[in-house]
Amino acid sequence: MNHLLTIADAVATHARLSPHKVGLQDSTRALTFNDWNRRACQLANGLLDLGLNKGDRVALLAYNCIEWAEIYIGLARAGLVAVPINFRLTGPEIAYIIEHSEASAVIVQDALMESVASIRSQLKLAEHGYVLIGQETPGWLAYETLLGAASSNPPAVTVTPEDPFALMYTSGTTGRPKGAIRSHAGNALLAFATALEFGFGRDDRGLIVMPMCHANSLYFSLTFIYLGASIIIEDRKSFDPEHLLAMLSSEKVTFTSLVPTHYIMMLGLPEAVLKKYDVSSVEKLLVSSAPARRETKLAIMNHFKNSRLFELYGATELGWVTILRPEEQLEKLGSVGREWAGSGAIRLLDPTGREVPDGDVGELYSRTSYVYDGYWKNPEKTAESFHGAWCSVGDLARRDADGYIHLVDRKSNMIISGGENIYPSEVESAVGAHPAVKDVAVFGIPDSKWGETVHAAVVLHPDRSVTTQELSAWCAERLARFKIPRSFSFLLDKDMPRTATGKILHRTLRDRFIEERRQA
């Protein structure tokens, strides 16, 4: 048995060493490490008093708020397993995750209560299994009531590093979501590797903007927890670029992780607004979840002059796999970097399991010490994701002569047209380079002659225009003929379907387009 501290042990340690240091805050309140540890113990005991037992699953549905961190630690203290649910999901999608995970209880923020109320008759939870954060409501156990009635002493439950910490359900862009089992040990090792590579320390102040149901926010939060650093939670329900700038300034934030869209919106504010906020405290920034273009990276580096920009590639199942360091951002534009301190070697395999030569496309497999423990109740998919000790989530990539990894696409997104394999991300890079294009999603649509043809859904910059003929001509200068989109559609930014972290839902977009075309 290894002897890594569990995440709850880490909070308890800092409660002893730095009891009065603020470890956690959102817009409503702040918690010292001592307060955090006390409330986590109360939650753990409260849930155990309801009849839950070590290993039981507890589903969580909330917007970003301070309670997320309390709940993660409270469940860990009790040996219960967190099942975070994306707040953007519909009632049937939420029901599927609660039922599939066999959750014994669900903790819901009052603003999202109706999402669960609409499916309550389908669920098999006990009457006391519905806990509500916020105002007291008949039929729900109030979160604060649960804590207030429980002991603040550590519960008599032995939790080992090998025990499961969370079931992280994938975003389901290619079908039913799968629950990735993340252990305490895996998350601890990932946290230490993250701290090592980024150079984080106990004096850092990390701003969590990405949804706390998502692995990105969880993994960085765990890193700061183990270090005893401070976590600031952005708890607005919609993204406000100026408010983000104000928080970076007023809270003296040293790090945050954002998707390219966040940076584009923030740095697109008027110069007078940008100059109002002092962001000199920001030392490190991460751009993740989607490729960032050269002009976006240059704008980030120009505005955050004291900061170093990083890019990571990883997955819920894998943790972080590659890192593109600050000095490589422009030199290796389009690459996600090379393997880092926390990961072993990377292999790119063809369908027969043989390694492909540099420059060729293969499925990316990595070997890390913090890989997930398999998919919950899905041994077939678990087996499919492993090749011996190597694990894959179906991403396709190529390695250049310098050893840098360039993601090509998801295996499931690949378009096959006239027998030719076409990777949407390659076409998206070409279309997206046009100065009028703000964002683009490429997918295949059924064709009786070719099997599939390439379609591009395009979002334009405000006050810019371009015709389909102009885009076709632009692509003809950059792509082989069979890769050029045969058709284009133009969308408003708000109509582009995305996950909570900004990734475009290609399958949703494709299905919507095909249905609209069928009805036309």
Which properties best describe this structure?
about 525 residues, 9-stranded mixed beta sheet, GMP Synthetase, Chain A, domain 3, Rossmann fold, about 25% strand, about 30% helix, 5-stranded parallel beta sheet, alpha/beta
Describe it.
The strands form seven sheets. A nine-stranded mixed sheet has the order 2-1-11-10-12-13-14-15-16, sandwiched between helices. Helix 7 (184-198) packs across helix 8 (215-227) and helix 10 (260-267) crosses helix 12. The protein has 520 residues and is α/β, with parallel strands linked by helices. The mean pLDDT is 91. Among the domains are: 7-184, Rossmann fold, CATH 3.40.50; 414-519, GMP Synthetase, Chain A, domain 3 (2-Layer Sandwich), CATH 3.30.300.30. It starts with 6 loop residues before the first helix and ends with a helix. It is built from 16 helices and 27 strands. Strand 21 (395-399) and strand 22 form a beta hairpin.
The termini sit apart by: 62 Å
Gyration radius from CA atoms, angstroms: 23 Å
What is the tally of helical segments?
16
Please give the largest β-sheet: 9 strands, mixed
Number of extended strands: 27
Strand arrangement, major sheet: 2-1-11-10-12-13-14-15-16
Q: So what's the overall shape?
A: globular
CATH-defined architecture of one domain:
3-Layer(aba) Sandwich
Mean pLDDT: 91
CATH class of one domain equals Alpha Beta
Stated plainly, the CATH topology of one domain is called: Rossmann fold
Percentage of residues in strands: 25-35%
Indicate the percent of residues in helices: 25-40%
In terms of structural class, how would the helical and strand content be classed?
A: alpha/beta
- The low-confidence runs, each spanning 5 or more residues with pLDDT under 50, are none
